[in-house]
Write a structure and sequence with these properties.
Elements (H helix, E strand, L loop, with lengths): L14 E4 L4 H12 L5 E2 L11 H11 L3 E4 L7 H6 L1 H21 L4 E5 L28 H21 L2 E7 L1 E3 L12 H15 L3 E5 L5 E2 L1 E3 H12 L8 E3 L5 E2 H12 L4 E5 L8 E2 L4 H5 L8 H14 L7
Helix pairs in contact: 1-7, 2-4, 4-5, 6-8, 8-10
Length: about 325
């Protein structure tokens, strides 16, 4: 299977979704279940610490998955990434090495490593092609996380080259949707805005202050679209180079804040703390390779964002805060 060939995965085969309780992994699990997969396997972090190599190998020995999606990772927003780089580098490298080595030892047929668009250089030409990887310096506020994910991409490529595995890696753009992380210190920008504006409405606050200038441009992909794309590329893509997953459209962070404020019903003032970092000026992925495989996103940002806000409003007590 190479390039754009098509190979339907066996719906009855054991399929391990690492990180199945997370934002991405949860959506992937739901989509696989809806697509007829009957032997899905998942373990929470309390049941299986993926940083524990012996435990990971024991799990693979017992479960014998034929397919694996690696959606497990330590993730966070600009504050968490910039203040705890050791955690993001160490944990993610260990998780990836353990899972990929165990997948090799127990002969996993198809594996997809889920990465991040932050692996690309800070000033990469826009929209960012997959070939931009390793062509320039990274964004300093999340370089440790990016290096860990780059190591995962290189590990997949090494497995292909040395052992002939049909494994791939995919780089999604910024994700949002049900099950997101709304923690004040570790959430990504869209989830942070949802919580911030919702808190303001509920407390009666008349001013909301956001980080930076609001000028950076960002692309956002609903996790349901991500899940659809993951299965699509697993059945149609078999190349060493990672494949981008996104919408091919972006907006400014300021425009995003306005959308979230409207969804939350916030009518007060919005201020910007320009002493705080903006991060990368723009991160728009080139999705032409994915488009050539016959996939395109279906969830538009505004209705998707409104749905995400409604989910948060209905799950405040149980959401990840």
């Amino acid at each position: 299977m190479t390039g754009q060939s098509f190979a339907v995965l066996d719906r009855s085969a054991p399929f391990y979704v690492a990180g199945h309780h997370g934002l991405a992994g949860g959506a992937i699990w739901r989509h696989l279940d809806a697509s007829g997969f009957t032997s899905l396997i998942g373990r929470t972090s309390s049941e299986l610490d993926l940083r524990d190599r012996d435990a990971v190998f024991d799990f693979f020995a017992a479960s014998s998955p034929r397919y694996v999606v690696m959606a497990a990772a330590r993730v966070g927003g600009i504050l968490a990434n910039s203040t705890r780089p050791v955690d993001f580098l160490s944990d993610n490298v260990r998780i990836q090495v353990n899972v990929l080595d165990a997948a090799h030892a127990y002969d996993v047929d198809r594996l997809l490593l889920l990465g991040s668009s932050c692996i690309y250089p800070k000033l990469a030409e826009q929209p960012i092609k997959e070939s931009s990887l390793l062509t320039g310096p990274l964004e300093p506020t999340n370089d440790a996380y990016a290096i860990a994910k780059i190591a995962g991409v290189m590990h997949v490529q090494a497995m292909r080259r040395q052992y002939g595995h049909h494994w791939i890696s995919a780089m999604p753009t910024n994700l949002y949707g049900p099950g997101d992380n709304y923690d004040v210190d570790s959430s990504h920008v869209l989830a942070a805005f949802i919580r911030r504006f919702d808190d303001a409405v509920r407390s009666g606050a008349t001013t909301v202050t956001n980080w930076g200038t609001g000028s950076p441009r960002r692309e956002f992909l609903h996790v349901d679209d991500l899940a659809s794309a993951v299965l699509h590329v697993l059945e149609r893509y078999d190349e060493a180079e990672p494949i981008n997953i996104g919408t091919g459209r972006d907006i400014t962070v300021r425009e995003l804040a306005e959308m979230v404020a409207q969804a939350a019903g916030y009518t007060g003032a919005v201020e910007w703390d320009t002493a705080k970092p903006d991060g990368t000026p723009r991160k728009l992925l080139d999705v032409s390779r994915l488009t050539e495989l016959g996939w395109a996103s279906s969830v538009e940002l505004r209705p998707g964002l409104e749905q995400a806000y409604q989910w948060y409003a209905a799950h405040r007590d149980s959401a990840r805060l």
